[in-house]
Here is the input.
Amino acid sequence: MEKLKSIDEVCGLSLGNTHGMNGKNNSRLGVAQMINTLCGGSNYDGWKIITDENVYHILIDNGQSCCESWGYIVSESDFSEFVGKDIKDVRLTDTKLNNSSVYSDLDNLYHGGVQFVDFEFSDGGVLQFAVYNGHNGYYGHGIIIAKNEDILLSDVL
Here is the structure.
């Protein structure tokens, strides 16, 4: 089992063009994504999780286009209780577990979604990360979940 070493917030990580322009699971569909592609890539915010064996990234495109509400969150604010623990599994969950609104004053944002990434530990603990975006149908944000150099998931929320 791999051991968790550290968790760092990532802001403005510049990545080249990582995937196609076909939309949804092949990502990059929309005016902002096309401009980013033509300019050589996008900038991302999110999390970098380092273990004794791997480096994981949980990222969302940080370009604001209009009225979308996007971001990244984690279930705990004190990571020290998880550092040094054995990771049993890493799970991707694209199902909303809680349907309550993050921003109740943005009711017109009816497109987008949430991508959860759960780090499950051998002692039964779970540390849950999420990237999210709510928008009016035109302003999706690309997400990337990566392990080392391998992209595990590339999608648009």
Remarks:
- The chain has one helix and nine strands.
- Confidence is low (pLDDT under 50) at residues 98-106.
